[in-house]
Amino acid sequence: MNKKLKYLVLTLVIFCGIIFSNLFLQWCQNELSIDLAIKFAFSWHTEKFFLASLVLLILFIFFSSLAGSLIAGASFYSLFITIIGIATYLKMSFRQEPVYPDDLQMVTQLGFFREVIGTGPFVFVLILMIAVGLLFIYQLYRSFFLAKNTQILRVMMLCLSSLGLVYISHFNDESNLLRKGYDQTALWIPYSQEMNYYNVGFVGGFLYNLRVDAMKEPEGYSQEAIADITEKYQEEVEPAESKEQPNIVYVMSESFSDPEHLQGLSVSGNPLKEYYDLAEQTYSGKMLSQNYGGGTANIEFEALTSFSMELLNPQMTTPYTMLIPKMDDLPSLVSLTKDRGYDATAIHPYDTSMYKRQDVYSILGFDRFIDQDSMDYTQTIENNPYISDEAAYQQILDQLQEEKTPQFFHLVTMQTHMPYEGKYDNVDYQVSGNDNNRNVEHYLQDIHYSGKALKDFTQELEKLPERTLVVFWGDHLPGIYSDQLQEQNDEANLHQTEFLMVDSKEDLQHEEGEVTSPFYFAPNLFEKAGLQSTPFYELLLDLEDILPAFEARMYVDNDKQFHEELKLNKKQQEIYQDYRLIQYDILQGEQYSLENDFFN
User: Fold this and answer.
1) How confident is the model at residue 373 (pLDDT cuts 50, 70, 90)?
2) Cβ–Cβ contacts within 10 Å for residue 565, how many?
3) Which of 31, 355, 394, 434 could link 297 by a cystine bridge, Cβ 3.0 to 4.6 Å?
4) What H or E segment, with its residue span, contains residue 119?
5) How does DSSP classify residue 509?
6) Which of 472, 485, 252 lies closest to 349, judged by CA?
């Protein structure tokens, strides 16, 4: 065989091997469906499949040039891809989650893998890993004795592939050409990494979860600047009215909003009567949501941490999946209540795969995470597949009755999650003005049940001897409204949901036309309930005085007017800059502010 033919055959073998390994990853991700893997590669997402193949080719070249042997490189590459694929299949089976870059850190947890796959398969894989590892080391040793020309070629390929992998690792940089290549056809789904991987492929989803800076460094960031800010706001903190530690219940209600606020939509009946019966007697109003039709975890991030998504880099699309799992310390309402002697419980009547909540809640400091598999109450309403709000509230009531230690609960409901049509046999409300009115009508029935359950829950809280504070809000509007209806409404209408705060023992003053952002919830609650504030919350209250609510391209002034651009005078800009510096310090900087009890 002449050299040209030899190289041609070798190139063809490598090409086929790369394509096969990419198909293997898709096969494992798609529950071992050959049909789905083939359709993904050669019908639905061909561009993304070949971009992924390019990434795998660079990885293969790196292994081969490092070992100085195609055989050793191919063996190590094949073993690596096989393990990643099997791990993906197992993780999808057990947790409905794909493998993330951070999961590679678990490679040393051999005992865990033995329990998952069984002793026999584990021993086989371990022997295979040792054999391939020894082959790789042997070929690496032999590579030092390669001919000069071969050695030069090897070093060149090693350098190029190394640079390629470094470049690929910066996938989330705005200027990254590979990311731009994906963006031509990719529809990223940050709220569900399972769906994100399905939509862009294993390699694309994996790269999407690589590092990205949370924020650009604000001008003037330094330890001295943070010390000045912390000292300034520590002086604003006043002693609380009492030392009482009431229970605190956060309720983020899936897609809860009032459709009657939308222009062009007509609703018969009053689905939110019970909700407004409660809201009009307490502090309530509208909450500015970052997204329309999704983005649940981002609203949750803002509500728990009091940090704003508006300040983050645009590519930091979902801190729950891209930032928090990489952090060791993140101050939040959870850590604050924990420091003050509370037990902290997160409840989500669904599985733990969404938004990496299991990892995130652990980092935030929750004592326990109760999901659909560990709840005592799992009732649903009619054909609704999701656990009802009433059942979730009963889970909280039981624990409040049993525990004497002050409790902090964070509940993320599921009852009002899409899809909506077909949930209920009897719908009490009619709608006109939308293409799919039946869908909206079932949604109205959903929020009716949700509002009633909330009202009943607060009434039960009044019977308990301990004081309980409730913060309730909808995370975003449901994505069920037609394009024509959306065009009749401005951004403000499509990004406002309902919120209220309830004190089981005292009345909170109702304020007409109130518009707020979720990162203001905690400081407002502490101020209105007479709880001990923190310097960070004092900064937020000062910020709220000049910016009652804001998200990217949506800034609300004190006259409740919306603006696309931020307009502040010099003094107001200083407060906004203080907030930016603190948020950068915690999420991207050196966390100097943790040293001065700024968050306690």
Assistant:
1) very high
2) 6
3) 355
4) helix 119-142
5) P
6) 252
**223 within a domain of the structure (yes/no):** no
- For residues 239 and 273, state if they share a domain: yes
- One-letter amino acid identity for 125? V
Six-digit token string for 538: 């004092």
- Give the mean pLDDT of 403-428: 94
Please report, in angstroms and rounded to a whole number, the separation of the first and last CA atoms in the chain: 75
Interaxial angle between packed helices 119-142 and 110-117, expressed in degrees from 0 to 180 and rounded to the nearest 10: 130
What CATH number did the domain enclosing 371 receive?
3.40.720.10
Domain extent, residue 27, equals 3-208
Residue 220 in domain = no
How far apart, in Å, are the Cα atoms of 318 and each of 123, 211, 276, 413, 490?
38, 12, 32, 19, 25
Q: Do 173 and 245 share a domain, yes or no?
A: no
252 plus 127 within the same structural domain: no
Q: Which of 422, 428, 354 is nearest to 384 (CA)?
A: 422
pLDDT digits (tens, 9 = 90+) for 428-483: 999 998 887 889 999 999 999 999 999 999 999 999 999 999 999 999 999 899 88
Q: Mean of the pLDDT values across residues 234-251?
A: 91
Q: Residue 55 has which token pair? A: 């990434």
- Which residues, in sequence order, are CB contacts of 411 under 8 Å at separation 6+? 249, 250, 251, 252, 346, 347, 348, 392, 393, 396
Q: Name the domain count of the chain.
A: 2
> Both 525 and 463 in a single domain?
yes
150 to 60, 64, 147, 156, 157: CA distances (angstroms): 18, 13, 5, 10, 11
